[in-house]
Amino acid sequence: MNLRRIFLFPARVWMALFFAAPLAIVCGYSFLTRGEYGGVEQPWTFENFTRLADPLYLAILWRSVRIAALATGLCVALGFPLALFIARAGKRRNLYLQLVLLPFWTSFLVRTYAWLFILRDTGLVNTVLQSLHIIDAPLQLLYNEGAVLAGLVYNFLPFFVLPMYATLERLDPALLEAAADLGARPLATLRRVIIPVSMPGIVAGAVLVFIPCLGAYLTPDLLGGGKTVMLGNLVQNQFTTARDWPFGSAASLVLMLASALLLAGLMRSRVRKELM
Amino acid sequence: MKRHALGIYAACILAFLHAPLAILILFSFNAGRFTIWEGFSTRWYTAALNDPQLTEGLLNSLIIAGVAAVLSTLIGTLAAYGMWRRNAPWLSGMLYLSLVTPEVVTGVSLLALCQWAFRFLHLRLGMHTVIVAHVAFSIAYVTIVVAARLRNYDRSLEEAAMDLGAGEWRAFTRVTLPSIAPAVAAAGLLALVVSFDDYVITSLVAGVDSETLPMVIYAMARRGVSPVVNAVSSLIVVAFGALILLSERLQER
Amino acid sequence: MHVLELRNVVKEFPGQRAVDGVTLALERGGFYSLLGPSGCGKTTTLRMVGGFEKPSSGDVFLNGERVNERKPYERNVSTVFQSYALFPHLTALGNVEFGLRERGVAGRRELAMNALELVKLSARAQRFPAALSGGEKQRVALARSLVLEPQLLLLDEPLAALDPDLRKQMRAELKAMQRQTGITFLLVTHDQEEALSLSDKLAVMNSGRIEQFGTPEDVYLRPASAFVAGFLGAVNWFGDAGVRPEATRIARERPAEGPSRRASVASVVFLGNRVHVHMALDEGGRAVAELPRAQDQFREGDAVWLHWNAADEMRFP
């Protein structure tokens, strides 16, 4: 087993040094105070956390949760029928899966930028609408929550469709036949059998979307302008422009804790089977 | 009837998923600046290839992604193999956590580490800090891909090799590694793409002279829609798409 | 009017004809079986009656109505699946209520509990399928279908997954249930003992066709073809004539009358309450005689005479 220890050594060291240790540092910083020139110094304090309870920051927290929840809801509603379609597609399954994944594997930045291109004042939507004389002046489609939502759903839809497909694919077809045999028409079968039985998969997929949406940075930054500030933007801002690292660390911790708790809850519950 | 409705819906959603990129690529060939079609042209591609900022960014990205991918593939493959032999709960936990941690948080935490490094070791921000960061978040991806391949790998092949006289290391290098090589290559390509594409973490730990391509694109996008960005984006889409398709082919072997 | 009528039903899949012209008519209130080896088309036929497959040609009539185009939820026929197909998210009671809920029947809880009592499972009504044994799951599946009082109950190899002892017990219960409810049962099986013991009439299928449809006695004693004879039990072939092992007797000397053959004992197999004597015929070929244990006095190597009643011979054109 010596060889095994050696094999694991580089990864252990790298992750300890460059993942765990930095997080520990941030943890520590969240209890310290901002220095005069933007450094970090004593005294130890809880102030950074109490500051998060300030209405201004609570609004940001609430907005992050709200947008993440909305984006998740949309991903579930839009993605479930798609996953169902692919699960029933027989031989063409893999083709459809590829089609869903393909945009996902292009650059995240590019995908977000594409929405910029489409929604701007001089973007595609406005140009088309104006040339058809449906509107006179360009619509403000960008730099609001709607744009951020669109970007998030667009980027994270595959995060839901894939695990949902995996769950639906494992559904025993005899259950569907039994339901029909007992008198249930297709919609009733969907409502009374398919959805309840695949619920663990739905929850798993939803959590897998919610967590990254909660910590989103690039999407609200590019598509939301300075106006739609989410938790991720707050953290980035505190570590760069505002130079208040302790406060930024506290916000990071809250974000991390929320994500970790959700994931832990997921792992421990019955839902865990769906991800394996 | 319902079967058709579902199919139509699926077609719409798939169109929704692909339309923005298709539009982007289409308009990268637009002779005009904006969204009014003025004829077919490749002028923006020429402009992009001649832009010094873009080419420097591309070079930096390639170097960083290349080095990071090699390192993370090495480390990740060894780790996946080690964990396949026997569970390593702490390491698995850290790797899973690294996948779930928001990029912003990973980025700022590494920035904090770099600041310590600066204070005690006089280490400045630069390509090396970016590479270190990229390896840190790529290892998990590599491990997942290689671990998936190992799950289908027959343990008794190594046992047979050892029975025939090969030591553990030789069994690994002469029997297992060649067998999982396509998956390792696929993982490497994945690490390459993930590293190349990163913006958030890179922007936090890069120095002034190590701007990557995503950082340049971001700056240009912030200033407004530039058709040059359309062209570069299209190139990236095609390049990434090809790399990922290749990676998946390799994983099927 | 027949409760089920199949007229020249054919089902084709790419590359094979699973059902090749099946014609069958079932009377109300009987216990029927489709018997045959795997791949003979019996399950496909059942599925066409249930509405899960559409006939490529031919017609299916339920109570005189042509139902080829009707979906499973539009037929008054219920299926007990081989894997039971119990809904994992519902209790036993919830499962049994399912069809009743779909129909919007009032007082369904009571009806469901009655059905569970019929299958002797009311004590486990609140359990989820994961906590039930194989036999218990099967009872729930039965109750779930029976509670809807279908015209016809279809059972797809219902006893195949059970232990042998449980199987015998469930057989008796199935028979009793059919008598009690008066519902027409159509069972699919590859186990000839099952088909013989349960059915009022059974259809023996081979390669997509029905070779014989008759009572158990008809099918066993007067098989319509060599295949039916061989599938329903062992057969000793003496030229063109086939004789069952239990009709084959052994004597030390040549009997005065009746057909007989010389043979030598190859082995004697003790089976508890009876004995199988395997013999090699002098003229070539083998045969088996089944004798009650009391008569076991033959040893390997003995020279004997095989004989039987001419009336017990089975011959085929």
Describe the structure.
The complex is a heterotrimer of chains A (276), B (253) and C (317). With 276 residues, chain A is mainly α. Chain A contains 14 helices and 2 strands, in the order αββααααααααααααα. Chain A has a two-stranded antiparallel ribbon. In chain B, 82% of the residues lie in helices and 0% in strands. The radius of gyration of chain B is 22 Å and the shape is globular. Helices cover 26% and strands 32% of the residues of chain C. In chain C, the strands form 4 sheets. In chain C, strands 6-7-8-3-9-10 form a 6-stranded mixed β-sheet, sandwiched between helices. In chain C, strands 13-17-14-15-16 form a 5-stranded antiparallel β-sheet, with no helix packed on it. In chain C, strands 2-1-4-5 form a 4-stranded antiparallel β-sheet, with helices on one face. Chain C is elongated. Chain C starts with a strand and ends in a 10-residue tail after the last strand.
> What percent of residues of chain A are in strands?
under 5%
Quaternary structure annotation:
heterotrimer
Strand content of chain C: 25-35%
The secondary-structure class of chain A comes to mainly alpha
- Terminal CA distance of chain C reads 34 Å
| Helix/strand order of chain A, N-terminal first | HEEHHHHHHHHHHHHH
The residue fraction in helices of chain A comes out at over 70%
Helical content of chain C stands at 25-40%
Task: Give a quick set of tags describing it.
heterotrimer; A: 276 residues; two-stranded antiparallel sheet; 1% strand; B: 253 residues; mainly alpha; MetI-like fold; 2 domains
Blueprint of the fold:
The complex is a heterotrimer of chains A (276), B (253) and C (317).
Chain A: H1 2-29, E1 33-34, E2 40-41, H2 47-52, H3 55-87, H4 93-104, H5 108-119, H6 124-131, H7 145-169, H8 173-181, H9 186-197, H10 199-214, H11 218-224, H12 231-239, H13 245-268, H14 272-275
Antiparallel strand pairs in A: 1-2
Chain B: H1 2-28, H2 43-50, H3 52-85, H4 89-100, H5 103-121, H6 127-151, H7 155-163, H8 168-197, H9 200-205, H10 213-223, H11 227-252
Helix pairs in contact in B: 1-11, 2-11, 3-6, 3-8, 3-10, 4-6, 6-8, 7-8, 8-11
Chain C: E1 4-13, E2 16-26, E3 31-35, H1 42-50, E4 57-62, E5 65-66, E6 77-80, H2 92-103, H3 108-118, H4 134-146, E7 152-156, H5 164-181, E8 184-189, H6 192-198, E9 201-206, E10 209-214, H7 216-221, H8 226-232, E11 236-238, E12 241-243, E13 249-251, E14 260-270, E15 274-281, E16 286-292, E17 303-307
Parallel strand pairs in C: 3-8, 3-9, 6-7, 7-8
Antiparallel strand pairs in C: 1-2, 1-4, 4-5, 9-10, 11-12, 13-17, 14-15, 14-17, 15-16
